[in-house]
Amino acid sequence: MSEFRLSSFGRRYSGHTGILDLMTDLSSPPADPWAPYCMLGGGNPAIIPELAAAWEGGLRALVDGDGFARLVGAYDSQIGPLGFRRAIAERFAEDYGWALTERNVAVVNGSQTAAFYLINMFSGAFPDGRRRKILLPVVPEYIGYADQGLDPDCFSARRPSIQMLGERSFKYRVDFGSLEADDSIGAICVSRPTNPTGNVLTDEEVRALAAIAGARGIPLILDNAYGLPFPGIIFSDARPVWNEDIVLCMSLSKIGLPALRTGIVIAREELIEALSATSAIVSLATGSLGPAVSEPLLRSGELSRLSREVVGPYYRAKSRRALEIAEEALGDLPWAAHASEGAIFLWLWFKDLPVPSRELYLRLKSRNVVVLPGEGFFYGLEGDWAHSRECVRLNYSGPEELFARGLRIMAEELRDIYSA
Amino acid sequence: MSEFRLSSFGRRYSGHTGILDLMTDLSSPPADPWAPYCMLGGGNPAIIPELAAAWEGGLRALVDGDGFARLVGAYDSQIGPLGFRRAIAERFAEDYGWALTERNVAVVNGSQTAAFYLINMFSGAFPDGRRRKILLPVVPEYIGYADQGLDPDCFSARRPSIQMLGERSFKYRVDFGSLEADDSIGAICVSRPTNPTGNVLTDEEVRALAAIAGARGIPLILDNAYGLPFPGIIFSDARPVWNEDIVLCMSLSKIGLPALRTGIVIAREELIEALSATSAIVSLATGSLGPAVSEPLLRSGELSRLSREVVGPYYRAKSRRALEIAEEALGDLPWAAHASEGAIFLWLWFKDLPVPSRELYLRLKSRNVVVLPGEGFFYGLEGDWAHSRECVRLNYSGPEELFARGLRIMAEELRDIYSA
Question: If both were cysteines, with which of A94, A280, A369, B27 could A406 make a disulfide (CB 3.0 to 4.6 Å apart)?
Fold first, then answer.
């Protein structure tokens, strides 16, 4: 029996990708089933008791409510329930004074799928015969975008400048001098807080990017999956920015509901209409439970409060502790950590690492420590950049003792690698 | 402010489509808010009390269970939970003797999305430079496929022969004489029971189609969303057919969980791996609640029992009653109904209808009766076929009195149309 012959689309998306590795690692058994398993890969958020209790209570109220049979037994619309979309618009209007209505809000089955739509709506072949790319003002950028384009070469990324903030701390800075958005660019895209680095672009940087986009009539896609007002995993004093040039992507995943696949897009009405039409074709309808369980908490302000008072502080403490653990474990190895301004990752840079970080990843995996090698986050760049092989992403949202064990094992491997 | 410039992909999917109309109608308010609203469009299944109680109990047990925080608070894999995939494989092995393992099973966020992947994996541009199409052995076929192809011209459909079973009853038959699957065909696709007609291809017809596919090394995509063993909305004695040439698509929607977006694909391992890779890129992870709530019922056989003893008989009775209502309402108008062998729709043909069925649809909509005009189900055909403008699809799963009222209003409009 010969294999089915796949189309170019089929070939494009069925190959080996970084995001597939990431997801496969998440659901794979440990190399050694008898030893502790240090899962520092993937993007699973922490299970925070106060948050979990809120969701459990909310879902129990739904199940016990009169409308439950109808809630799960009928298709939602292709763009999410009207009430939830209004609640989102009103929440952002109240929190930030933005002029939004439900016509500026779309629900999508996960923000990953929203990114798939947006990246392909604004890159690849255009009706005028040109090909355009998504400009990434900074890489490393979220690995999950890397292979989303129908056009495999759909990103044009820029190297940031690296600002050292101390011997063990650095921060990527947008190099605005390199940012000419000419007619070869269909959109600008950046995650803020940035996955994988924890970088948070300043309000001024975001406004400057939006202005560059606006001047060209293209959107700035701003991935706010870790940002404000929920889940609120931001440790700097940054504020959300939105205007009609910005497409703001949100998610209920990092506020504790990744299994309900609820992505949210805030954008000008014409784009929401385009997303609605696309969703009807590709997904038919949105899942109902994420919007249903979160709408009351969104309306009451409880979701913002939990984010501000529980989720943000929780990860801020985890982030500080993760850095302390890294300092203890890595000692005088040639390492530095990116400034942790948000999100749930520690981004480590090992200067002049003698092997690619992918080899470090494989060594660690064989010892029950799963991290994400940095290579997959550097895409769309022209030319070689040794730095792209010297970094790893660690998810610090899990149990501290496993994080510490993972770091100790990493330090052992690194000592071995650097001394070879 | 000028509009954002969309890529060809963006233009392709953001346009006006039949499935968008369908979904928009489903979530739109009635034309007259003071009159009864006869929603006979869309594909919402009935709320069947025994079934709703099973899901409500199952979800309550999940919420009250120890693992709930983890269930909703962690990402599932890109291809669905292992336990559920095993349960599916074992259910089909037990019910039908098929040799399946979890490696033959994929979970996708809705069977609509599964169809999007599959249609594009097997049509459009191929690495060998050719373009290939999906062969539809029979149209009318599910409207939700019509605009899924990246290549807008990705279907090659065949007219069925129309077999009259009586003055008021007919059945579409595959015209095997017209089915040359040459190298311009990338896959064959058919829904069984067929949406919109309620047609159920016989086991022999399915085997013959699979043999044609197998001989060419291409898959037969068989959409089993209404079929066996769940939801079991089949009134004929057809049995499910699967072999390595067949890609069988299932769903939890019509067994009562459309809002949980759970599609299931059963296919040879290589294709499941390709779907897994694609899902990681496009969707990241599957929703967890559909698999979690249905796995125990799947394992115990309760899902098959409910389908056989509750769901199937429920719709069989609804179908018979719908036909009686149509007979009463339409009387001596020139109408016929497709043989109702499964699914949840009555497919009516109005011979020599003086206006396109889309106009009938618009007239009815203005009177609070929503149906689906037939035009959108006839795609991929060469040449004009007057029959394609003479049919409508009615969802009969809702309250009988609204169905009857809708048919009476339809009869009034038809009398007016035919006498004009």
Answer: A369
